[in-house]
Amino acid sequence: MANVLPAGHFARDTASAAPRAQSRRWGGYLALGLLQLTAAGIAARDLSGSPAALPAVAAMMTVAGAAEVAHALASADRAQWPARLAGGLALTLAGVLMLTDPSLAALQHTLALGVLATLAGGCRLAAAWPLRHRRGESWLVVSALASMDAGILMLALWPAAPLGLLGAIIGADLAVRGAGFIAFAQVRRGQAEARARRSIPH
């Protein structure tokens, strides 16, 4: 004899699954933000331009970019993930470039770093701008604009940008980027908790 479950069983399962999915979404943004703030902290430890400090910054940039790529691929928003994926790839390539030349001795490497930073911000802006009127999305717009500004500043200072100044620009970019993701995650968290409360039967 086939087991027959009450119809309410499926409704309860659906209601309980939705908050878990929302939690995973804001949790991913929170993890991204914390990772990038950590990278910014490493960059801020030594702004004197010492080449010995830049490999750690480059490694954190690479990890942060790879995390953005993974988060974009796991995103349920198929309309936005290509731009977010491109932004993460650009940040990853910028980190790899710095790992191959920590002192940025080659002028073309410094130029490429500025181009990649501008591209990363532009791609993230393209993903966030259409949704800017949604609650919390403005934080992603602000962080994307900051990334673009960082890249444009690198290009404006090329080819005479001091190494320490480049480190400061990269650190500031990562800090604003991370803060934007964390702020967005907090908004999403509040929305998820509100949905969870509404789904609890009274």
From TrEMBL:
The chain crosses the membrane at residues 26-44, 56-74, 81-100, 106-127, 139-158, 164-187. One of its GO terms (cellular component) is plasma membrane. Keywords: Membrane, Transmembrane, Transmembrane helix. The keyword Endoplasmic reticulum does not apply. The keyword Transmembrane helix applies. InterPro entries: Acid_resist_chaperone_HdeD, DUF308_memb. This is Uncharacterized membrane protein HdeD (DUF308 family). It comes from Ancylobacter tetraedralis.
